[in-house]
Amino acid sequence: MKQVVQNYKSGELALLEVPEPACKPGGVLVRTVYSLISTGTEMMKVSEASLSLVGKAKARPDQVAKVMQSVATNGLSATYRKVTSKLDSYTPLGYSLCGIVEQVGDGITDVAVGDLVACAGNEHALHSELNWVPKNLYSRVPAGVDPRHAAFGTVGSIAMQGVRRGEPQIGDVALVIGLGLIGQLVVQLLTSSGVRVVGVDPDPERCKLAESLGALTCAHPASGIVDTAVDELTHGAGVDQTYLAAGGNTNDPVELAAKLSRDRGRVIDIGKCKLDLPWNAYYEKELDVRFSRSYGPGRYDPSYELEGRDYPIGQVRWTERRNLECVLDLIARDRLDVDPLITHVSDFSDAVSTYQALNEGSLKAVAVLFRYPDAVARTEPVVTSARVGLVEHEAAPLPAGQPVRLGFIGAGNYASSMLLPHLVERDDVRLEHVATTSALSGANARRKFGFASASTDIDNVLGDDSIDAVFVVTRHSSHAELTRQALLAGKTVFVEKPLALSPEELQKVLDAVEESGNDRLQVGFNRRFAPLLHEARGQFGPRVGPATVRYLVNAGRLDHGSWYNQTTTEGSRFAGEGGHFIDTVSWLLDADPVSVYATGDLQVTLGYADGSTAVITYAETGSSGFPKETLDLTADGKVLKFDDFVRASVYSRKKWASSRIPKGRDKGQAAEVDAFLTAVRTGGPMPISIASLAATTLATLAAQTSVANAAPVRIDLPRKAGAPA
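^ Oxidoreductase, sequence as received from the core. Prediction below:
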């Protein structure tokens, strides 16, 4: 395998062929997908290596002291041989990466082969194709997080530990000196904590970037702009905390910190800057100077880092690994945006030239990533996306006492058995017109359900201004187009699943929403309305942590003549029916899926932004005597068990079980229709948001894409500002 190394004596950088590491107990072997160059720490090391011996000595007086001690102990000759041997050896670079678990060592149970993990450590997260990483220095990457972003986990932990040392409170004013990679992350973490931030950096582009990420004002330290901003924000008192994220040999940062700090303010050193503290200034304000030790508690402790001995959470709340997990969670929930920090992505094969360009200044960057193409090909998901409006419209309510006037397009078996029976007896509904493909089926629907009129022309439904809402209950291949036409006609629409059979069809529906301003749409995902499932969810209670869902759909074999077999025109069976199960899981979790991975036997794994996962097994080869749908939801020390809309139970501190006498399999059609009619009558929000309908549809279609590409598929939808993925 290849690894980036440097000879500290000559300054030579090389992409060296080295033996692959073994997978030892207590850790995992990780194949790197992306690794991050620390443009501060690493480039300082690269720059020092190009200095003369005298220059190296001036840059590292701490090492000079060690050498002098060795001379006193071992003599000059032995010390010289030891120092020159060490200087003339290759040393590794790198400490922050994202990769795939390739092998699991003994004693590891929290990750499996194939999992995506973020890794830390300047001995274990190197710029190398393979790394062995001990347990406390990796964390599983939440579903939906881009591997490029997960590679920021370690540097994010450095910034987070610095912010924790500052103990910010809501309403504080903080000064960040140095707006490189760490400084930009500190700005975001402080802003998301309710702190007002001002920044200092001589680079105007970095100042602009920090302002775009939440800082109120950023400027050159000599401009006086920051001084004025601090004076106005604090009414002359000074900032509550100053975060030193700058490097270099100037003492200006610590002097500026003293100048702009309030009485008894805190100064936190995160970077490696000169610290000749001006005694009078720090003494008179009694400033509290704190150091932030890298990624957090556990750093430099071999028992923690190498032996995997964690600190009790009651004694040490935020360790290295817990900081890493927290950073990944913030990225997953869009609370930390690292994408604007990525200046350049280079293939790993170009690592040496990339370092040289950074060192020479021809490549100016905040963050640079190495991309490992072979590994990326194994993890980079296919992306399926849609443009969907984020504003949900309300409609004018119907006049008091006026029935909801309905039109039906299609009146086949499902409509006649599952929908119309819940409408025909209602006093608040008027069945105006039914349009069917054959005259006889329309006549039968009119006779059985009392439609005022029937025809074979859908324009009699879509063109009738008196009709308030339209039900589209036709074959799958026509759903998207009929829904599009009905939305453009200004109708509120109920369409049976599926909404669409391809992402292109879905986009046409969403384009019609945008064009017409009409997003009054519901898809027939009835299971979320089932009374027994509602009762079980209520007994389960609120969910705090990630959940695991197992959903077995014992679908059985189709009859030979079923039109479901017409996959060329009507789509696959799962494309037609799978949305039911995905929507049910998403409703239970109160979130939409962000990733899908499916295998050929239709084991569909859904990932959610909070780390929850769901596995839907869609089986056609099971026994017809076994229930069709069984579901288990596990989270927060509780288990919800659901058996085919007949029985349900919740195992918690106290067990709850539904009645032993089944009331029939109510799959929610009556409640679904009632919720739809309520929205039409009142003009209130539709029962399911259009963004959720789009996400469920994309996820359903993504199963087929995932099988075809043997790769995960990421669901990409726009989100409301500040909303979770």
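The longest strand covers residues 27-37.
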